[in-house]
Hints:
- The protein is mainly alpha-helical and 95 residues long.
- It contains 3 helices and 2 strands; from the N terminus they run H-H-H-E-E.
- Helix 1 (6-15) crosses helix 2.
Amino acid sequence: MTQLTKEQVKHHATLAWLAVTDDEAESYVTQLSGIVDFVKELQEADTDGVEPMTHPLQVFNVLRKDVPTDILDREEMLKSVKEHEDGQIKVPTIL
């Protein structure tokens, strides 16, 4: 098992602008050593024949193409508005 020292932990904490107490540094020694060991274990994994990927899940584009279409019948839509003129909806003046 890789064993980091408390001084190494404090040094890296300083580089990251983190304030750690001696007790915290002592507890991080064990945690960070475990992480370093796990990374080493991952590096030993045989990845020959495994294609690199950018995302673990297959991603699909769920958006439709931006093509203008008539989804509403204009005459039918104008029947549901309060006022309209020349095929356009009239709205109250705001300013």
